[in-house]
Amino acid sequence: MGKWVYLFKEGNANMRELLGGKGANLAEMTNLGMPIPQGFTVTTEACTDYYKQDKKISEEIQKQIFEALRWLEEENGKKFGDNEDPLLVSVRSGARASMPGMMDTILNLGLNDTAVEGLAKKTGNPRFAYDSYRRFIQMFSDVVMEVPKSFFEKVIDEVKEARGVTYDIELTADDMLELIRRFKEVYKKHMGGQDFPQEPQEQLIEAVKAVFRSWDNPRAISYRRMNDIPGDWGTAVNVQTMVFGNMGESSGTGVAFTRNPATGEKGIFGEYLINAQGEDVVAGVRTPQPISKLEEDLPDCYAQFMHLAMNLEKHYRDMQDMEFTIQEGKLYFLQTRNGKRTAPAAIKIACDLVDEGMISEKEAVCRIEAKSLDQLLHRTFDPKALEEGEVIGSALPASPGAAAGKVYFTAEDARNHHAQGERVVLVRLETSAEDIEGMHAAEGILTVRGGMTSHAAVVARGMGTCCVSGCGEIKINEEEKTFTLGGHTYHEGDYISLDGSTGNIYDGDLPTVPASVGGYFGRVMGWADKYRKLQIRTNSDTPVDTENAVRLGAEGIGLCRTEHMFFADDRIFKIRRMILSDTLEEREAALSELIPFQKEDFKAMYKALRGRPMTVRYIDPPLHEFVPTDPEDIEKLAAEMGLSVEEVKSRCDELHEFNPMMGHRGCRLTITYPEIARMQTRALMEAAIEVKEEDMYDIVPEIMIPLVGDAKELEFVRNVVVEVAEKVKKERNSYINYHVGTMIEVPRAALLAGEIAEVADFFSFGTNDLTQMTFGFSRDDAGKFLESYYANKIYESDPFAKLDQKGVGKLIKMAVEQGREKNPGLKLGICGEHGGDPSSVEFCHKIGLNYVSCSPYRVPIARLAAAQAAINNPGRI
Amino acid sequence: MGKWVYLFKEGNANMRELLGGKGANLAEMTNLGMPIPQGFTVTTEACTDYYKQDKKISEEIQKQIFEALRWLEEENGKKFGDNEDPLLVSVRSGARASMPGMMDTILNLGLNDTAVEGLAKKTGNPRFAYDSYRRFIQMFSDVVMEVPKSFFEKVIDEVKEARGVTYDIELTADDMLELIRRFKEVYKKHMGGQDFPQEPQEQLIEAVKAVFRSWDNPRAISYRRMNDIPGDWGTAVNVQTMVFGNMGESSGTGVAFTRNPATGEKGIFGEYLINAQGEDVVAGVRTPQPISKLEEDLPDCYAQFMHLAMNLEKHYRDMQDMEFTIQEGKLYFLQTRNGKRTAPAAIKIACDLVDEGMISEKEAVCRIEAKSLDQLLHRTFDPKALEEGEVIGSALPASPGAAAGKVYFTAEDARNHHAQGERVVLVRLETSAEDIEGMHAAEGILTVRGGMTSHAAVVARGMGTCCVSGCGEIKINEEEKTFTLGGHTYHEGDYISLDGSTGNIYDGDLPTVPASVGGYFGRVMGWADKYRKLQIRTNSDTPVDTENAVRLGAEGIGLCRTEHMFFADDRIFKIRRMILSDTLEEREAALSELIPFQKEDFKAMYKALRGRPMTVRYIDPPLHEFVPTDPEDIEKLAAEMGLSVEEVKSRCDELHEFNPMMGHRGCRLTITYPEIARMQTRALMEAAIEVKEEDMYDIVPEIMIPLVGDAKELEFVRNVVVEVAEKVKKERNSYINYHVGTMIEVPRAALLAGEIAEVADFFSFGTNDLTQMTFGFSRDDAGKFLESYYANKIYESDPFAKLDQKGVGKLIKMAVEQGREKNPGLKLGICGEHGGDPSSVEFCHKIGLNYVSCSPYRVPIARLAAAQAAINNPGRI
Predict the structure, then answer these.
(1) A401 neighbors A419 (Cβ within 8 angstroms)
(2) pLDDT category, A262, cuts 50, 70, 90?
(3) Probe site for chain A from B718, B773, B790, B804 (most A CB atoms < 10 A)
């Protein structure tokens, strides 16, 4: 049968999984002897059971609820639904992880037509009693029965108008009675003739169900997805004796933190209202007072509160966020929890708690949400300007930061105007590899299409450039260079501002402020580096990004995409000539002209790395990504190659692919055109040897072959690479060492990892492609259906953002085990977008990878997440 | 150290893996006491070792070769390179499986400038000796040293011209000496000043190396790919004492079969030449005599040959293909092997051998190459007409059969002219789902693009329609409706003929003859059905195909693709209206009009199946495949829907996908638009109930959800299906049963098969998509690089034709094990193209599937392959 219901006094803080956070803390505070209105918790398991029973609460659970209720009646000396002195309760959700505002609450439950009279008599305050009842009807109808709130608000407005009053507070007890009467009518009408339930036990069971149901409302689902909370946890329900802060001048209610949640400053921070209920604080009718004012109003309560709050912080060894109510001079705590805080506050509090001797360094490291570090590293808008700014639209917060600048519609325009010293925002339908230089020039990027892992989003995050993507509401006219959004039409050169952390788009030129990374940040990162086992590398293709990443703590480059080097003006023609050549000789001639460029690029990268290692991925994208689409470019190319426009077009057309993602790319290119790998090897080896000699760095080039699915593929390319590398060594009289490895990004590579490991020095899991191929959908196309998947609870999170440990992870684990078995010296890493996602980093730690590699701005996140993983999973050597 | 070289007398027929087919049979014949020129075999392991040692023959192997050679000298009483009576040998390849003509042979090895004089003296035939030497120089230079043959042919032509003669045979001994002199000059010049090797031991080792090398020549690689022969087997080398059929009128050489390889008729079938070497038979200078003529020429030899040939057939219990040479009245067998034969011959021989008591039914079943049955089931060209026909081009033999008809360039034209009674050949750049009806109307299909698994190829094989695909040489002008090939230009209405079994394209209207499937076929199929464990189903979407498949032995439908039903004229508009609708109501309205059509389709299918089961796959392709691209169609649709052309176009554009293969398709469609699944379920259930009642068949609809990658996806769609199905049952007052299962075609589905099995009644492995996603390349795009992969020995076969057991097969096995573990009643099958490939069928048998499903014309192949798998793998229950 099991135990489905716990009295507060039966639980404790460690029972969070079963009782939810709120329930566990209410139990803990009860055990601490704090003033808590007593009650009980219906467990998260009961919630899971409710869903398993096709949304029914079993007989057994109902029985246990009523048993707990009887205890509560005795404890309070009041009866549920009593005519003299009725017991009233609140019914609140409380999940394992805090999900503020996501689920539903019902207050004053237990009132009915007769009990309300008892309450009126007992309190001697009929207006209070009737007000409580009408509030209950309203809340119950809305939350439990889904009668729209607006119906009741309309009634209130009508009554106020009839009475000629402006505020609710001006309504009399009789007015409240009138409201109750009319509310019940609304209820009956909407519920098909059913009367408002008068039986408190029925009210209670329906309310519990409603809370269970609210676990799966759309905003809760979406919140869970954003915060990595599993959908099968379920919520507990807390049933607690009501206390009232609205019983006169010696009553009140408030919220307080033990430290400032925005700055981390030590000291009670909060506000309260005398003679009010929690609702009133939210409604904003009256302005709350700072908590210090309570000392004047109710000095005893204030002293008791301060004392208990400090005790709570000491007990939980963390900053507390508390709700309290004072009923006729008696203080009650309704809730305490570890307070949410901004990233700067989190870092300061963690350092302060260590200095105060309350927590260890390891604990400090675990107290900071790794993801939140993102906030610290980018420019933000001046908060005042933000308040006044006009939001003209909103889309996906694809890459954090704040940007304001003049709108341009092509990469070329963006680059040119940037060169003239303008701040530029690039607005595109979607971006492609050709836009890279324009993206580099821009303060921010706004796209009409594409999701969180679209080209624009991925590249922008890599660069640390603010990006808002997938703004479908934009009507763009690329020819006339205008776009319309939120009723405004913008022409080339008009100002807009983007907030990449919220996805908001603003009219005009909002002022921004730089990120201020204080000493606390460095201190926490130092602790993280001390405890983590994983190395942290970065994905970077330019010296600027590399220097930035090194500044943020990167220990090397895990992924240098060489094709990005081909798009600059001085190279693209050469690569196009290579592609359009008919013979090996022509291709080799075109490629040989590329060697000096690519070599200089590699030299610059090695110099930026100052001795740190670099994994260089050879050419990956299909060749059609390099050929021109613009008629002007085609003509130019034809003229330069001495071909007709038709010939160039037809050759470009031949490169067309039905599914470019699954086409002629990666090592498949090197197998059909080994001369490309030869060129890249020569450039890389010469660069490494020269920098090694010039700067005395101990460089060991790491050559990474993409898209391998068979050991023989890697073997073939490896032979090509080794032949050229050895030749260059001989020419340069060098003894430089080098490694050849592969990406594991095709499912077959993971399945056959043992064989592949025998010819590889390292594996790097390319989890972007591996996710796409394992799921069988492309991230560019998934946008069309993923929303339906979230809404129908088929997926809880975006597998491109958070690694799918069950499916893709199974392949990775298989590959790690087989690879290590066949090649114990195999080095293992990951270089997909997941390298910067904390839960994915933890997975990488657990399965024993050597490093993760992520975009530069995620390096601190990865460092912290790796430390947390090491601390929470001490088993790994 | 190991044993690398075996004398013939040391081996036997069971040592085929080590000695190759030829070597094992020479050993066996030696043991049988037959007249065999003695020799030895260098093993296949030595070949593998040669490749492992970076193309070197180890000291040890060379030592063993020379030891064997010494034995051979003693045996023959002749010395290698002797001045008086030199030992001459032939050096021939011999792999485990017969690969006729694929690898190299060198005759007369052991001759040099002095030994040739000995031979001349000993035989008293200087011309013979010099001719043998010049042939050896020519062969050795070509095969071993890669000096082009043409250089030598040019010399022969020059000498003949100088002597004023026409035929080689007219050249004198002195002319031969002149040839020898000049051949050696050619050799020296081409070999950078090196003389022709005079040391016979050096000649031998170089020749052995050349044979090893020839294992990896391009034509051998390609032959292996076509015949499923693994590249790591290697070839053995047979070194055998030369015998000469060209030593006068009592000498000769010939080839014979114990039964007719074309018809299977019993009786010696072969031909020979008096006073000739094997080469001369091939050169076609003289016309060979039928073997019966030998009785007149050399009656003793004939009698001995007949006796031994019959003994060989009895010994091997199969039809033999033998080579023999008669040297001065003495008969030698040079080779015997099981003879290659046509499919009709194979079937007749198998039946005859059973009737003659030589083999069992099981052996008979295993004697027929399953793939070859393809030849029996399609129309073929009249062989005489074929000889006279002009081949204008050649491309991939995508779907077997012969077709002749008038050329049309659009599906619509093809259909219209077919309706007027014309025989039609559809010529397209490539085909798409819209062309289905035109393809149905055509006798044959010719495409410019696409490989063996392109849309055209797959659909044509399914229909049993002849198809030649990927003819890149065609210059097509779709607007003017003409194409050019092989110097001809064809206009609409001109005749061409296609041979889908060879890939040849002929000018004009060649007459065809229907397939004649005699009683032998039925008898063999009967045995196959008796021994196989796998059920054989078919992939079929139309009643005509279904009836055909049932006639060919299909036990049900394993894959009925419902979307093919949407393309007919009377439906496509409705489906387009559904797609372009904005609201659920509009979509439901459009879909409800489709129900009667789809229901009638299902009813017709069930009636054609006469009680056999059918697995119906719900809509799979992305919606953009259904929308019009033709401007006229767009206008029409806009008019009919009351929308502007712009609106229709823009809605169609929105459906664009970057990677349609990995886009919004399969169950993803049903999750975003559950109304489609509702429509299909209603149509199917109503059809099943009606046919069940009308015809009293025991129908259990099998509903298959495509592209599932997560148990929750299937659960969601299953709930939609069950809801409608139960509703229909209630409406119709029916107790019909039904199953809901899924395709396993996304790697993640295989990885998580255990979870999925808990909500599935059956799995069907969609190995086409599973192969694409596991390898990470699309079959439409792979053509660009697969040839390089074969050439570089990275892949040995097309993974879309032959299941990749190592990679994709690993996923399938995993899914079978996990699926059965969680749901022991799970039914398992396969419905990709691989269902008709014999080696893949064997794999399916071994891992314990319940059925395979393939295109109708492959059903007999699958039946036979399944029987062979069961006989060869008796372990499975």
Answers:
(1) no
(2) confident
(3) B773
* CA dihedral (A715, A716, A719, A725) positive or negative: negative
| Option in B780, B793, B807 nearest A659 (CB) | B780
Span of A117-126, A136-145, B568-577 with lowest mean pLDDT:
B568-577
Q: Which helix (H) or strand (E) holds B306?
A: helix B299-316
Q: Alpha-carbon distance A785 to A775, whole Å?
A: 13
Residues B346/B264, Cβ–Cβ less than 8 Å: yes
Task: Report the 10 Å Cβ neighbour count for B394.
Answer: 16
Residue B401: per-residue pLDDT? 86
Q: CB neighbours (10 Å) of residue A528?
A: 26
Known catalytic residue: A455? Answer: yes
Supply the pTM of this predicted model. Answer: 0.84
B260-308: pLDDT as tens digits: 887 899 999 888 888 887 766 655 556 788 898 999 999 999 999 999 9
The total number of residues shown for chain A amounts to: 877
Which pLDDT score is estimated for A158?
92
Neighbouring CB atoms inside 10 A of A64's CB total 21
Q: SS3 of B505, please?
A: strand
Rounded Cα distance between A480 and B467, Å, is 49
CB of B767 closer than 8 Å to CB of B749: no
For chain B, percent of residues with pLDDT exceeding 70: 98
Give me the residue label for tokens 């990005």: A564
- Chain segment A268-288, per-residue pLDDT in tens: 988 888 888 776 665 555 678
The predicted-structure confidence for A89-137, as pLDDT tens digits, reads as follows 999 999 998 887 677 789 999 999 999 999 999 888 899 999 999 999 9
SS3 A268: strand
Of B663, B671, B785, which has the smallest distance from its Cβ to A668's Cβ?
B785
Query: What are the percentages of helix, strand and coil residues in chain B, rounded to 5?
Result: 50, 20, 30
What does the alpha-carbon distance between residue B313 and residue B353 come to, in Å, rounded to a whole number? 10
Distance CA A585, CA A583 (A): 5
Nearest to B794 among A664, A671, A772 (CB): A671
| pLDDT at res. A463 | 75
Name the catalytic one among A831, A844, A845, A854. Answer: A831
What does the longest C-alpha to C-alpha distance in chain B come to? 102
Report the distance separating Cα A229 and Cα A96, nearest Å. Answer: 9
Percent helix, strand and coil across chain A, each to the nearest 5: 50, 20, 30
What is the spatial distance between Cα A120 and Cα A531, in angstroms, rounded to a whole number? 61
* pLDDT (0 to 100) of residue B747: 98
Do β-strands B557-561 and B535-539 pair in parallel, antiparallel, or remain unpaired? Answer: parallel
Going by their DSSP bridges, the two strands B380-381 and B330-338 should be labelled as unpaired
What's the CA gap between B169 and B303, in Å, rounded? 31
Render pLDDT for A399-451 as a digit per residue (tens, 0 to 9): 888 999 999 999 889 989 998 889 999 999 888 877 888 888 899 999 998 77
Please state the φ and ψ torsions of residue B211, each to the nearest 5 degrees: -65, -45
A673, closest residue in chain B (CA to CA): B788
Q: What residues of chain A lie within 8 A of the CB of B775, using their CB?
A: 709, 746, 748
- The closest alpha carbon to B446, from B421, B418, B465, B423, belongs to B465
The structure tokens 């807390």 sit at A238
- Helical H segments across B532-661, by residue range: 543-551, 569-580, 584-609, 631-641, 645-654
Neighbours of A295 (CB within 10 A): 14
Q: Could you give the CA distance from residue A227 to residue B439 in angstroms, rounded to a whole number?
A: 53
pLDDT at residue A432 in the model: 81
A795 Cβ neighbours under 8 A, 6+ residues apart = A786, A789, B710, B712
Q: What is the pLDDT of residue A746?
A: 97
ipTM of this complex: 0.83
H/E element, B284:
none
Chain B residue whose CA is closest to A781: B663
